[in-house]
Amino acid sequence: MRKLIVNEFLTLDGVAQAGGGPDEDTSGGFQHGGWHMQYGAPDGMEKLIAEAGGFVLGRRTYELFAGYWPNAPEETQAFAEPMNTKPKHVASRTLTGSLEWQNSTMLPEPLDEAIAALKEGDGGYLLVIGSTVLVHSLIQHGLVDEFRLMIDPVLVGGGKKIFPDDGALRPLRLVAHEVTTTGTIIATYAPA
Questions:
Q1: Coil, helix or strand for 96?
Q2: How far lies 125's CA from each of 6, 29, 54, 101, 144, in Å?
């Protein structure tokens, strides 16, 4: 059985929105896009992406990635090659038509059954990147096997978060942790 790993860059106040650039996601009036860039990609990120058996993405993240990775700069090819060639499973109720990005398919409804079926398959772990709305649903259905959180030392005062605000208690256990030279805490958690 394959694991489903949620990999997220977070601010210290728990925001996952628009870490990569100023125009990445301005919804809700978010003005701090690109907050993560000064902290860089932590060691191990390239390996995490390279060893993934495939990616599970929400619509917004899929559209962002599909617009960037196929034409990514040469210096990012260690990330671009697996992003472009590995299977991408897209969860969306609004995308229609065929998906143009290589090896991309729509997940059928209901989402929880589609993800459970993917996890039963062979291959490396499934990696979720970004996709805050999708992550909420995965958490609520108990489908996340591991959270790999890269917590940057910055506060943005509000924005999209990956954890649902539903009052449910979900204990976790710390599996691994490290601190980078830029002060980012990389913490890996699994359900307790």
A1: coil
A2: 10, 35, 7, 20, 11
Residue with tokens 């943005």: 156
Cα separation, 83 vs 86, in Å, equals 6
3-class SS shares of the chain: helix, strand, coil, % to 5: 30, 25, 45
C-beta of residue 177 within 8 angstroms of C-beta of residue 188: yes
Whether this model's pTM surpasses 0.90: yes
Give me the CATH topology for the region 9-186. Dihydrofolate Reductase, subunit A (3.40.430)
- Would you say 145 and 3 are in contact if contact means Cβ atoms under 8 Å apart? yes
Among the residue ranges 5-9, 70-74, 89-93, 95-99, the one predicted with the least confidence is: 95-99
Give the pLDDT confidence of 100-159 residue by residue, as tens digits: 999 999 999 999 999 999 999 999 999 999 999 999 999 999 999 999 999 999 999 999
Average pLDDT over residues 8-16: 96
- Write down the domain spans for the chain: 9-186
**pLDDT tens digit string along 20-44?**
999 999 999 999 999 999 998 777 7
> 119 CB contacts (<8 Å, ≥6 apart)?
1, 2, 3, 4, 126, 143
Tokens encoding 142: 């108990």
Please, what's the largest Cα pairwise distance for the chain? 45
